[in-house]
Amino acid sequence: MSSWTRTARGLRSASHPGPTAVVTVLAAAFALGVGASASRAVLVTLAVLAGQLSVGWSNDWIDAGRDAAVARGDKPVVAGTVSIGLLRRVALLALAACVVLSLATGWAAGAVHLAAVASAWSYNLVLKSTPLSWVPYAVSFGLLPIFVVMACVPGASAAPWAVIATALLGVGAHVANTLPDLEDDRRTGVRGLPHRIGRAGSSLLAPLVLMLATVVVVLGPDRPPGPGAWAGTVAALVLVLAASAGVVARIRTRSRLPFALSMAVAVVCVVLLVMAAPELVVPA
Length: 284
Prior knowledge:
Elements: H1 3-14, H2 17-33, H3 38-62, H4 64-69, H5 76-79, H6 84-104, H7 107-125, H8 135-152, E1 156-158, H9 160-178, H10 182-187, H11 193-219, H12 228-251, H13 257-275, H14 277-280, E2 281-283
Antiparallel strand pairs: 1-2
């Protein structure tokens, strides 16, 4: 394998490709769902992608010392496929691109997205090891629908229920994603909210928050999202996925499945948001 290929694969892994892809695709679907033109949807998607790349790369750059301390061989820096310096450079370049692309959607909308990205960076830099570790997730996820609507529908914003639902999704994703690494994190001094309430508490908190997010999405719009049977089926699926995340996290302590299931819940909920687009957009 050539050095270029190894580096490219390392950068891809360090970008946290799963979360990056999910959030970016959801933003694109959200933009199209609220009636954005193709060009506007592409611009919004690229802005979100650049922001997500900056967050993912900065996370692995900032956490490189902790990852080495616990021999996280799955991390590119520890595996030697990328250097800390390279991650720092690409993270800052992605952040610069995010600033340009975000402001290209409009000053107000761009400021909202940059606030969301800044919130995510605050987690990497400071809040990850505090009881407020959940706050950046709530803020960043909650601002996403506001950004997309402001960027795609001039003079409008997102309905409050949509903001609440996405904020709850962010918190649930944070708690579930932390579960497989609780022990490694503790050994390196990370003491976020999930670490403080423990594995049992976090295993219950994640599905409960995700269930609440689903309820908000299903019941929030003034117009029902579909026939009662359809809504019930979707809600039941989401509840099963969320509950499974908690069970698996308790039984298989190193499993990544809780986070994958959380992202599945996010996909289902955003599909519902897109289908409820007329109720989601609130004129200023």
